[in-house]
Amino acid sequence: MLVIDPFEDLFSLPHVTADQRRDFVALLDGLARSGSVWVIAAMRSDFYPRLAELPVLRELVAGAGRYDLPLPRPAELGQMIRLPAEAAGLRFEAGAGTTPGLDAVLLEATSGDPAALPLLEFALDELYRHDVEGAGGSMLTFAGYRALGGLAGAIAGRAELVCRDFAVTAPDALAETLAALVTVAEDSDLATARTVARAEVATTPERAQLLEALIRGRLVVAGGDDDGATLRLVHEALLHHWPRLSTLIQRDREFLRVRGRLVTDRLRWQRDDRAPDLLLPPGKRLAEGEDALRRRRGDLDQETIDFVERSSRREQENRDRQLLQARRRLRQTRLFAAAMAALALAAGGAGWMAWQQKTVAEQQRQRAERTIALATETANGVVSELAQKFRHREGVRVDLVRDILAEARTLQNALALEQDLTIRKRLAEADPGNAQAQRHLAVSQERIGDVSMLERDWSAAAAAYRTEVTIVDRLLARSPGQPPFPYPLDYPLGKLTDCVDALAQQAVAANAAGQPAAAVAGAGQAVEIGRFLAGRDPQRRANLAGLLGNLSWYQLSARDFPAARAAAVEAFGLDDKQVWVLTNAAHAEMFLGQTEAALARHRRYRDAVVDGDRTWRQVVVEDFATFRKAGLDPPAMVEVERVLAEKP
Prior knowledge:
By secondary structure, the protein is mostly helical. The chain contains 28 helices and eleven strands.
């Protein structure tokens, strides 16, 4: 006989893949149809719809293959309540007058609700502890039942009693340990208990001590031994009836889902001999992993951390290799592109002495345009020849040829645009009142910005776009109501916003890779562009505040505490709705030894909701965990934690 309980783990455990489910069910099918083995699987009814995913399993449970255990009838449930007590020589307190006795109250509270059965088990056990072991009596009492808080209160009360001290002395360890024992399904919001290796959870003395308390309190079941030791919540009723745990699940639902995906991906990678192509791909999956490392590293096992870090290194190596290849191709194309650009320089140089004359300047501009057009046409001919040579060379893929030619054209155009910009600048400086020359200069700046964006040089692109916007603003001031271009100014402003986003993402990646100086540099560039945009449009002040808040966090990581405080205070001054930035100011003050100022901020805002549905306390607790891992643990942290633990 083979007994599988709980069978729903086949669907709820995140690391079990669809192929593994099919293989396991095929094995059960073979055993069941052999005629030699009885296969009995116990499964929760709320997982029945998942049977449809596996046709073989659906056939196995069809007809007589499935037995739905009915709810116990009231008489049977009454026996389950009374008979064990009678066998132990115990009795239930009788009600006064027409009031039913405690056994009848328990029966009424449990009848018709299958989810109440595990709660009944906990309640009876806790009643025994309270009235018999604790009070030395032989009767289970109403007072004891009320002290438990009823059926749901029994399991929640047990859990809170076990964790009460840890919630004050080690709140981080408590939250991290509970999160490790829960998972959320990928395709639904269903939270389930998670079987996890003990070594994965007991990574600190606080966690190990907490686990022992949970096991002694019969809230967690330990299985196996040594390297194979595992842990699991004793019952899933804890997920729904313990407010502390249900609140944690609600708060961390998305992280729990992401962690499940990362573990699944990591296990698939390990099963396939750590094949490089099974590392996290660039894009959303890798970004999720890197964000989980940055924010919740302590909630991931070491193998998953190594998996994400290796994925990040591979992506960085790919980017470096692509950059090196681009530079090599640039050297190859410089030979013909530089010659064409020299023609443009000669065309511009011929008229330098006459630039102060407006008519000559205009003629010089036209000649420069014709020369650049000729240079581009000639370069295109060279590129065409290069295409023919590649096209007839064996072993070179057509798509590779196309990519090389496309990049050659981009680099050729970049060089031509640089020379064009030089000429445009000189023409505009020679005749500042010439609106046409100013417009041409603005167009050249935009082209330079576009090429810089293609090369992912966000700082250069932003500088070009800012210059363009400044020129256009000057032209509009001279001739209000007469747009200098057929397109709106929102076009280059939108590109500036794209540059801000790209620089901000680079800063996030640098900080996640443990490069705080690079993160500060990238975030600082984003802030400068944000200042420019906010100076033109006050509605962008909130965006600038967010950029300053991120910069202050990176400055904390880089241990530049005065700058971090200044950035956070400035951010709050721009947008006082973004209270979260003041957590960075409080951290900086704490590290600078300005303890009273830091404590004052914590007392004022400790119960405020500062980030989505997270409170100031929660944000600070997570930040302190990050600081301690980085070796930042001043004595004032303990004072702050004491203030946060105070009741309002």
